[in-house]
Q: What sequence folds into this?
């Protein structure tokens, strides 16, 4: 199935669906926390131009928009964008597929892409990274995540015990490992500047189901397993990458 078609009519219930899953809510909260730490460090005087690629209902857009002078969100789903516009009427939202259409958006200093690469098929991942390279100014930054790592501890344990239900569906059937994503970024003209693993310690479904129940304990564990080396086994990882080179037009 082409991932482009997966969210066309899901706008009305998408946020509620994520909110109903404690682990999705947990990942969302820590994604936002890491974003609020990383972005002001890069742009202390605000991001001049910011693009949220595959912005969906604007969950991440809402986090970064206050840190930017100009915000643009792009998604292929009109139903998702309808929700995003209600959240952020001051932002510009565009419905379209930037991997196949030429939309005159200009260039950006920061582009984000969350909850996209782990779900998208291989050719769409490649096309998206090439497109984002072209949209970023030299030295600009891509902030992305991989929330479906098949090597997450929970996934490995579930497969070793032949109990796929232990993984709660997070990462099941996906193939984008942290190493593979890092290699893709390098091929697309990016170098990784920082990596923030999330939820390494949540290795069982019952831990995921209780995510958020003990904030102080989870704070300690997130910091304990926050080093870059743990990204290999993290179910979710926030990655900050810098654009080092333009891709040749022939390669796109």
A:
């Amino acid at each position: 199935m082409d991932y482009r078609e997966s969210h066309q009519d899901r706008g009305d219930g998408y946020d509620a669906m994520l909110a109903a899953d404690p682990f999705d809510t947990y990942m969302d909260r820590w994604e936002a926390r890491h974003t609020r730490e990383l972005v002001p460090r890069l742009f202390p005087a605000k991001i001049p131009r910011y693009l949220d690629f595959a912005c969906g209902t604007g969950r991440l857009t809402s986090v970064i928009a206050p840190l930017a002078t100009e915000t643009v969100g792009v998604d292929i789903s009109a139903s998702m964008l309808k929700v995003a516009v209600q959240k952020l009427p001051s932002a510009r939202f565009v419905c379209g597929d930037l991997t196949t259409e030429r939309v005159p958006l200009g260039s950006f200093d920061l582009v984000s892409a969350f909850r996209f690469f782990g779900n998208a098929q291989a050719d769409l991942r490649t096309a998206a990274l090439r497109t984002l390279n072209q949209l970023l100014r030299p030295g600009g930054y891509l902030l992305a995540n991989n929330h479906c790592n098949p090597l997450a501890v929970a996934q490995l344990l579930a497969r070793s015990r032949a109990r796929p239900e232990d993984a709660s569906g997070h990462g099941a059937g996906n193939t984008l490992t942290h190493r593979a994503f890092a290699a893709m970024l390098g091929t697309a003209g990016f170098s990784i500047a920082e990596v923030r693993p999330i939820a390494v310690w949540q290795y069982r479904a019952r831990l995921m189901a209780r995510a958020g129940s003990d904030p102080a304990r989870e704070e300690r564990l997130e910091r304990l397993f926050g080093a870059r080396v743990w990204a290999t086994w993290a179910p979710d990882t926030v990655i900050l990458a810098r654009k080092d080179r333009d891709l040749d037009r022939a390669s796109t």
In short: Residues 164-172 have pLDDT under 50 and may be disordered.
